Predict the structure.
Amino acid sequence: MSAAQLRELFLRDRLREYFLIRLLADGTPVGRLYWRARCFTSDASKIDWELNILLAEPGVRGRGLGSAAQALAVQHLLGRPSTRSVFAYTAVENHAERRALQKAGLHELGPLPHPRYPVSVPDGDWVVYSTRSRTAAD
């Protein structure tokens, strides 16, 4: 991507917020975390936040860094008045990420496609995790 495209993606896209994850000891970047706003109800003021993480450095996986980052993001997003829920999905066979999502406070809802979270996913078997909804109607 060009510098202008990257600026647009990371600085002007108000539906997504991106964060670079670094190890504190030496500052090495190891991955990224972002969330984006989704609206799956007729009430446009209620947001379902899609959480996404990538730990690109294999040597840091399995240390709790991903689940800790996701837990902080969930806590932050649940503090927003417009939040209806926070959700994430992963491949069925990605057992490490499934455990990380549970540690972050999300609960397995089942396979995708899912009626509550109508998201398009690549071919394969996917499972969705979510916080509990904040509205009684859900």
User: Anything to note?
Assistant: The chain has a mean pLDDT of 82. Residues 3-130 form a domain with the Aminopeptidase fold (CATH 3.40.630.30). Residues 64 and 100 are 8 Å apart (CA to CA).
